[in-house]
């Protein structure tokens, strides 16, 4: 019974850490747990370090080897992800059967949702590119090349996993000078994935919009798909479900074009221009002559209406007197 008891935090720091892990309408940026297996090659170790550099500060790299087999028993991996508050993981290992093995996946409700095993066929480290690097905490532009990403459900999940892995916090606006990094994932005809990292250079073009050049800065990986483990369709839809408050409410007579511009249609009733309220300016004020003329016409109108009413009353009296005779 003592193990089932809920222990409340005793410090302000502990309370803040627990509140940060609670469900929110807008979730925090997903952190990635990066860890090595029982045996690792130099390429795997260096690849994990380079990926950790790209993921900073939203990553947590373990410093010791772990005897874990995610496809056979992932209990320890799920426990470490929960302890470190990570919902994504990268696991590297190397064996005679599966050399240079890289496993990436994501976790939902403290259990593995999707997991893909990739083999590193060709690797070039970040330090081998003698070029200028990007600044830290730069959000990358993720590009997917190839027409086979939507052919199978496994490839669609892999694309979603890669996008989830290298996505940072969402921003409402983009500054051109702030776009410095491009991550390219190319799917070849034989289902190999070519991962390339480029630095964006803004060159003079003689116009307002600069000329764009890409300079490869590493790391460079050629990956082959080995094993996959994806969640069921129902569980996947439940994990991807968003709160109703985040869904944009439908607005009548409002539409968007292909460029994202908002177009609205306004329905206005018939307006009386004479009764329309305008600014009271000196130039629009009535002169004394116009006021006297308006008063005289108003008096004349009221007198005519009064005389017309008296005439109607007299005709009614004559009719009544004729009836009595």
Question: Gist?
Answer:
The protein is of the alpha+beta class. The protein has six helices and twelve strands.
Description:
With 325 residues, this protein is α+β, with helices and mostly antiparallel strands. 28% of the residues lie in helices and 26% in strands. The chain has helices at residues 12-21, 42-55, 75-83, 153-165, 233-239, 288-324; strands spanning 32-36, 59-65, 88-93, 101-108, 111-124, 141-145, 181-187, 192-203, 211-216, 220-229, 254-256, 262-264. Strands 1, 2, 3, 4, 5, 6, 7, 8, 9 and 10 form a ten-stranded mixed sheet that branches.
Distance between the termini: 115 Å
Q: Report the average pLDDT across residues.
A: 83
- Estimate the helix proportion, in percent: 25-40%
Beta fraction: 25-35%
The string of secondary-structure elements, in order, is HEHEHEEEEHEEEEHEEH
How many alpha or pi helices?
A: 6
Number of strands: 12
Rough outline: elongated
Radius of gyration: 37 Å
Biggest sheet details: 10 strands, mixed
Q: What class, by secondary structure content?
A: alpha+beta
Spans where pLDDT lies below 50 across 5 or more residues: 319-325
Short key terms for the protein model shown above:
two-stranded antiparallel sheet; 325 residues; single chain; alpha+beta; disordered C terminus; ten-stranded mixed β-sheet; elongated; 12 strands
């Amino acid at each position: 019974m003592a193990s089932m008891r809920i222990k409340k935090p005793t410090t302000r720091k502990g309370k803040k850490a627990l509140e940060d892990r609670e469900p929110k309408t807008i979730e925090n940026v997903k952190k990635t747990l990066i860890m090595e297996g029982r045996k690792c090659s130099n390429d795997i170790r260096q690849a994990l370090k380079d990926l950790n550099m790209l993921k900073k500060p939203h990553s947590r790299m373990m410093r010791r080897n772990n005897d874990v087999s995610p496809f056979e028993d992932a209990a320890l991996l799920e426990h470490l992800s929960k302890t470190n508050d990570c919902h994504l993981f990268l696991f590297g290992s190397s064996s005679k059967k599966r050399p240079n093995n890289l496993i990436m996946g994501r976790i939902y409700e403290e259990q593995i949702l999707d997991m893909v095993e990739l083999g590193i066929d060709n690797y070039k480290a970040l330090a081998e590119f003698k070029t200028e690097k990007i600044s830290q905490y730069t959000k990358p532009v993720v590009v997917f090349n190839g027409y086979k990403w939507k052919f199978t459900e496994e490839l669609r999940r892999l694309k979603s996993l890669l996008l989830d892995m290298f996505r940072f916090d969402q921003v409402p606006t983009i500054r051109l000078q702030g776009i410095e990094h491009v991550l390219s994932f190319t799917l070849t005809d034989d289902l190999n994935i070519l991962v390339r990292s480029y630095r964006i250079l803004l060159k003079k073009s003689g116009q307002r919009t600069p000329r764009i050049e890409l300079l490869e800065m590493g790391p460079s990986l050629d990956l082959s798909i080995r094993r996959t483990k994806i969640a069921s369709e129902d569980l996947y839809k439940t994990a991807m479900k968003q709160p109703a408050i985040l869904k944009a409410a439908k607005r009548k007579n409002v539409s968007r074009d292909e460029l994202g511009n908002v177009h609205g249609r306004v329905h206005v009733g018939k307006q009386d221009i004479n009764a329309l309220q305008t600014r009271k300016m000196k130039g629009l004020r009535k002169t004394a002559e116009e006021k006297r003329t308006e008063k005289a016409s108003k008096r004349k109108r009221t007198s005519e209406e009064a005389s017309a009413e008296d005439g109607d009353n007299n005709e009614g009296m004559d009719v009544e007197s004729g009836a009595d005779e």
